[in-house]
């Protein structure tokens, strides 16, 4: 199995790690010598199924499936299987099915629940497209969430743009920002980025109508666009650490299939998807970088 696969054209180079869940490790703008994705401080640590995400590299573009990780009580059997932290895909070894100059196809099989997980990565003129197909196996349906976990580099002075009309938010407990007693309910009330030495995460309470987020890097003269299909991924979260998590500085737009993060939370909010035997669910995302922008606003 290849430990690394590269796709490239005149504008971008994509690095893919099949043995680390098919992670997109790098999206590099060749013309501007600009790396979009957050990079590990040192060598990639060894992976093992079920390990804590904080013991991993916490970098690049991983997929979260079937949950961010929790105990889940099966309503039929009453059992409480422990689901892996940030899902099981990021620690899985992908089998590479095909590689061309523009496409990589890989797959793996689920351990927590019976499913086949197919990943197709396609080189674009200025980025990469990811297409995930998850097919239910076995005899019974099972609950599952898919979350885009694409950690991008944070740069001082940068700007974030969210889908139009997305305003009402819910802050995720356990983060160092905002402080207790000052939890906002709207995006306009929350400073982004958070203060130095803190981290935050929030979710938009309502399904988004537009599947496009932008990150503008004025110092580098670059903007990055993350696109997704709201019908597949109707809910949107945002994570950022400004030195508050492991001293790291990165952020992630997190489109997801349910609200939010865990199966239990999605069940409480009535947004928990089920994958039935023989059914396939498709999740598509696209990253585009290197586009010019005007300092007065994003065109």
Question: How do the helices and strands line up, and which of them pair or pack?
Answer:
Blueprint: E1 5-8, E2 12-17, E3 23-29, E4 34-35, E5 61-64, E6 95-99, E7 103-109, E8 115-124, E9 127-136, E10 142-143, E11 147-150, E12 152-153, E13 159-161, E14 169-171, E15 198-204, E16 212-217, E17 222-228, E18 235-245, E19 248-256, H1 263-268, E20 274-275, E21 280-291
Antiparallel strand pairs: 1-2, 2-3, 3-4, 5-11, 6-7, 7-8, 8-9, 9-21, 10-20, 12-19, 13-16, 14-15, 15-18, 16-17, 17-21, 18-19
Task: Explain what you see.
- The structure is a single chain.
- By secondary structure, this protein is mostly beta strands.
- It has one domain: Beta-galactosidase, Chain A, domain 5, CATH 2.70.98.10.
- It contains 1 helix and 21 strands.
- The strands form 5 sheets. An 8-stranded antiparallel beta sheet has the order 6-7-8-9-21-17-16-13, with no helix packed on it. Strands 12-19-18-15-14 form a 5-stranded antiparallel beta sheet, with no helix packed on it.
- β1 and β2 form a beta hairpin.
- The N and C termini lie far apart (43 Å).
CATH class: Mainly Beta
Low-confidence stretches: 294-299
Sheet of most strands = 8 strands, antiparallel
CATH architecture: Distorted Sandwich
Strand content: 35-45%
What value does the Rg take, in angstroms? 19 Å
Number of separate structural domains: 1
List keywords for this structure.
41% strand; five-stranded antiparallel sheet; mainly beta; disordered C terminus; 299 residues
């Amino acid at each position: 199995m290849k430990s690394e696969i590269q796709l490239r054209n005149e504008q971008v180079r994509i690095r893919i790690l099949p043995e680390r869940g098919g992670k997109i490790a790098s999206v590099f703008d060749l013309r501007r010598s600009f790396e979009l994705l957050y990079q590990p401080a040192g060598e990639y640590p060894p992976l093992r199924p079920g390990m804590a995400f904080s013991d991993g590299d916490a970098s690049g573009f991983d997929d979260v499936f079937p949950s961010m990780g929790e105990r889940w009580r099966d309503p039929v059997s009453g059992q409480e299987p422990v689901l892996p932290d940030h899902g099981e895909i990021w620690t899985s070894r992908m089998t590479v099915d095909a590689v061309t100059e523009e496409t990589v196809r890989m797959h793996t099989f689920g351990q927590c629940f019976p499913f086949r997980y197919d990943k197709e990565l396609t080189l674009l003129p200025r980025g990469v497209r990811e297409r995930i197909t998850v097919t239910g196996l076995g005899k019974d349906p099972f609950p599952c969430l898919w979350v885009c976990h694409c950690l991008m580099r944070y740069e001082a002075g940068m700007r974030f743009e969210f889908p139009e009309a997305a305003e009402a938010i819910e802050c995720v407990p356990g983060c160092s920002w905002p402080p207790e007693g000052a939890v906002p309910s709207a995006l306009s009330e929350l400073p982004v980025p958070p203060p130095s030495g803190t981290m935050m995460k929030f979710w938009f309470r309502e399904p988004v109508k537009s599947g496009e987020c932008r990150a503008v890097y004025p110092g580098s003269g670059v903007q990055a666009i993350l696109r997704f299909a709201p019908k597949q991924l109707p809910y949107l979260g945002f994570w950022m650490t400004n030195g508050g998590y492991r001293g790291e500085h990165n952020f992630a737009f997190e489109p997801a299939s349910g609200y939010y993060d865990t199966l239990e939370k999605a069940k409480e909010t009535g947004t928990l998807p089920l994958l039935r035997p023989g059914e396939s669910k498709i999740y598509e995302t696209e990253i585009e970088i290197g586009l010019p922008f005007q300092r007065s606003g994003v065109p």
